Records
---
Amino acid sequence: MADLNMIDALNLALAYELEHDPDVVLLGEDIGVNGGVFRATVGLQARFGAQRVLDTPLAETALAGTAIGMAAMGLKPVVEIQFSGFLYPVIDHVLNHASRLRNRTRGRLSCPLVIRAPCGAGIHAPEHHSESPEALFAHIPGLRVVTPSSPARAYGLLLAAIRDPDPVIFFEPTRLYRLFRQTVDDDGEALPLDTCFTLRDGPDATLVSWGGAVQDALGAADLLAQDGVMVEVIDVATLKPIDMNTILTSVAKTGRCVIVHEGSRTGGIGAEIAAGIAERGLYSLLAPVQRVTGYDVVVPLYRLENQYMPGASRIVAAVKQALEAS
């Protein structure tokens, strides 16, 4: 048991699976000798060898296609894409092959593939290094989409993703990589997929978020508590499929819901959650569902980055609006 940041926790989970499952292999650009652009795989090639931790050419399309073939033949490849903006060439293979393999072969083949990608703004990087494209991948049938919000959840969710027999897109919030440390026990215990995590209880409103924005939601919860407003904070964690039951149970208790995400507003995961609440929890609502999101623009350069992101002040304002509406 150790206090680790998210990068350390991801490295620990990858090492655990490499050690305990000979079918697990890692692929990516500069992940071997250099340990990856954010050093999530540092030391793993030296420990497990170049046939288990493979440095690949700078060719995301070829990387995805190769990994899908490996997965179809029984290996468990874990692919690192350096930044989420470099995922777009991968969509062709993921949409046309990885997500359909089980259905196409009537269950004869599966695709136990994990694609890891840093995502989100907050590190003063260009737009291709700062995007949150989770909604694009959540729209593809046959994929799971997962994103952790803390070191402990990064460890447990990555273990679960690698052990899943079907493809998983694993988005890692870049701004959380080294933001804080948390006690992580290297016990090989996976966290459940398809499950929300309730991080804080409260009767006044429900804050629903995921990834890096969870920390914004927790910060907003602290500010609201100073005014006597106690909110429930839910980390969605698995964005496809969504555990709506946990969200609906919370909304039934609080009567108000604010959804927070960094990705752009139109067609976002927040809209899907709001629709689910409207379909199954409308009569629980005391106020309209609020969304605090990124804007429908390209992620701006760092001088405007904070204006783009759903910070604590915007979340607090949305919660107060929900309280006033009721």
---
Amino acid sequence: MNEVIKIAVLGGGESGVGAAVLAKKKGFEVFLSDCGEIAEKYRNVLSHNEIDWEENQHSESKIFDAHEVIKSPGISEKVPLIQKLKTAKIPVISEIEFAGRFTDACMICVTGSNGKTTTTQLIYHILKKANFNVGIAGNVGKSLALQVADDNCDYYVVELSSFQLDGMIEFKANIAILLNITPDHLDRYENEMQQYVDSKFRIIQNQTENDHFIFWNDDPIISKELRKKQIQGKQLPFSSKSKVEEGAYIENEQVVINLNNNKTTMSIHDLALQGKHNVQNSMAGGIAARVLEIRKEIIRESLSDFQNVEHRLEFVARVHGIEFINDSKATNVNSTWYALESMSKPVVWIVGGVDKGNDYELLNPLVNQKVKAIICLGKDNSKIIEAFTGNVENIVEAKSAMEAVGLSYQFATKGEIVLLSPACASFDLFDDFEDRGNKFKSAVKAL
């Protein structure tokens, strides 16, 4: 009689619950454990699928009885429980790794420090318009594991953070997209940039010459790393600065996508996503679409009618001539740099939260040029205040989205912008960046 394989899942959010459901459907004995509270919607899914679970604790006797552990990406490799599991030689993998074992679908995987969600959503939009049987997963949509359990897609567009990539062993991206690499999450990587870079480059592990690697050719960190590596997949760079033989580039304000000497062109002014960084996102998405042999007309149409994701430079309202923009998804300095760079009017900037080892120096030129007042929205704002004192006359603190919006309304005048672009994680005052963005929007609508 075959032994039943036991799976322990750590984390009761979207990723963990999806993995638990898939494991149960594949006939494994499943136990899910979360050291915090599990949201009611996920409890209901676990109960409906008759999955054994616990919250507010980790019962190590049950966890260490497992043959394999699936870890949610939010749990650091450094926590004692994970270290003990590794010492016990119990494999610890990611939900993405686990899900990949049970599907032969084509995986289009997107990573980078900034622009992941926008590019993932854009590629999904193009594939849907081309009538592909496609799912969207990773950090957006339903978890990949849950979709593999419940659906039968031929293609998945998967947004992958460095944390998800860290738990990948045999999983392979058929089309791997690396948008950029800037310092982020260094607190999880012992403040060693190379560790973070290595994590991002895991997106190309296991690729063969039949796969494709799309990357930003202008990124100095990516360029330096490429010189060290042997790349198996077909390389398709995109560049805003120079012409590339195969991939995408800008010429005479036209995006040119060239694969196999077959060019697709489109004016940058017709792109739905405006701003330098969004042109890069559009180029990456366009290359992926051409690799999949989607018709040029569909690509052009999709790049021109795409609507950006919630909480990413999202227009909220105009109140007495003041524009309010929600960029709550900007959880690092570089992401906020892109937001400030795209602003064409004076800005009252709402910033702050959980600092991830941020260096605000990068923002000083843009802050000097564009920001008239700063509202710090976080429990500890000392680093932000120190960074910008002397650059901006008005720097004040707020402890809630409502207070921040009220203060911003006092500082801004007609024809100016209030921009929530925190450059920090949200967990000090909010559940997540979505909660922060939603509370900001509610506060604006209450004005």
---
Amino acid sequence: MTSSAPATMSDYFARIAQALACDAPTQKCALVKALHQEVLQDRTVPDGDVQADAMQHSFSVPLPGRPARPLLVHPRDVPRRRLGTPAGRAALLHAIAHIEFNAINLALDASCRFRTMPAAFHRDWLGVAAEEAEHFSLLAAHLRSLGHDYGDFAAHDGLWQAALATADDVLARMALVPRVMEARGLDVTPALRDKLAACGDQRAAQILDLILAEEIGHVAIGDHWFRQQCQVRGLHPEQTFLALLQRPGTPQLHPPFNRPARLACGFSSAEPDALEAMQAPAPAFSATSA
């Protein structure tokens, strides 16, 4: 681990790729947080022509590193547990921790994969990765206080599948990961937070309060770069977003939608109405649906 901010974009991308490929959660979080602090101290990712630097070097995007556990299964095969039991609460927190771990990889992958985007794009997604790493660290620590570790419960890989489906287009990635997958967290987190508080787990409720507040910023970053790409390509943002929702394999959204949070992220006031018109009512909540 270096002690100063990377000197060139090539150095920066090498560090991003190292963190992305790391398969040990604690070490991955440490690598991300260290790089973010170094960039903050230097106040920017390295100056220079990002596109020229990216084009001069041969880069490959590594597969995201992950530990041997948790066991990844199809979503329908994730065991369902009652939230009112200690095991059910632990399973829910584990599911959220798994989402946050995947979110670290998603943010790193965005910077590593879409290298010719402006330097501000890379600053933004490194910052997101650092906050996701903190979310994961808090949830993993709380799980340990409940007698469990990350990896103790089976999980599914739906969030990363969305990354694979948008690997060839930054506009689609910004639309379908932050504005669909992560925005879904804005809709469901308040109810999950209240359920955990009602079960007496105030620490978990505090962690979800933090996650909700910072996820609004993450979705807003995705919204900003989605709209930037629409502007570059001469596309209408709302029409383009609704069209992308029709792509095969795009996760189906279910109301109710957290309108205040979505508006705070940059969604237009008409978009929640359009989403509600497209979707069916949500199925009953389960501890494995987060």
